[in-house]
Design goal:
Blueprint: H1 2-9, H2 13-61, H3 66-76, E1 80-87, E2 90-99, E3 107-115, H4 124-138
Antiparallel strand pairs: 1-2, 2-3
Helix pairs in contact: 2-3
Length: 144
C-alpha cells in the first residue's frame, strides 16, 4: 500500500519537468532568432556601406557629389547614410540598418567602409634592395 501512495504523490512531476524544459527551449530559440536578426542586420549594413563607398568613389572620380550618391545607394539597400566624409581622393561612409524591435526596442547596426585609389605598392626592386640592406646590416657591414 505504501508503494501506491508514493506513486500518487509523484503523479504529475514529469509534466512539470516537461513544461519547464519547453520554456527553456523556447527561450533559447527566441534568443537564437534575435542573434540571427542582429547578425543579419550587421551584414546588411556592411554590404550597404561597401556598395555606397564604391559608388561614392566612382561619383567623385566623375566630378559628382559623392555623398549624394552614397546616400542614394544606401537607401536602395534598405539602409540610411549616417556619415560621409571625403578625404582627398578617398571617401569614408557609415550606414545604418534598423535592427528589428523585439521587446525593449531594436537599434541600429552600423557598417563602415572606405573607397578610393589603392595605396601604391613598392616595386619588386625596392624590396630586393631593402632585403639586401637588412642582410648587410645583420652581417655587421655598415653601408652609409
Amino acid at each position: 500500500m505504501s508503494r501506491s501512495l508514493n506513486a500518487e504523490a509523484e503523479r504529475g512531476a514529469v509534466t512539470l519537468l516537461v513544461v519547464m524544459m519547453s520554456a527553456v527551449l523556447t527561450l533559447c530559440g527566441v534568443a537564437g532568432a534575435y542573434v540571427a536578426a542582429v547578425t543579419s542586420a550587421h551584414r546588411a549594413a556592411q554590404s550597404a556601406a561597401d556598395l555606397s563607398a564604391l559608388a561614392a568613389a566612382v561619383a567623385l572620380s566623375e566630378g559628382a557629389d559623392p555623398c549624394a550618391e552614397a546616400a542614394a545607394i544606401a537607401v536602395r539597400n534598405r539602409a540610411h547614410l549616417t556619415a560621409c566624409r571625403r578625404k582627398g581622393e578617398e571617401v569614408w561612409v557609415e550606414v545604418g540598418v534598423t535592427i528589428p524591435a523585439w521587446g525593449r526596442g531594436g537599434g541600429t547596426a552600423i557598417g563602415r567602409a572606405r573607397a578610393g585609389p589603392a595605396e601604391p605598392r613598392p616595386s619588386p626592386r625596392k624590396k630586393v634592395i631593402a632585403a639586401a640592406a637588412i642582410a648587410d646590416f645583420g652581417a655587421g657591414k655598415a653601408w652609409f
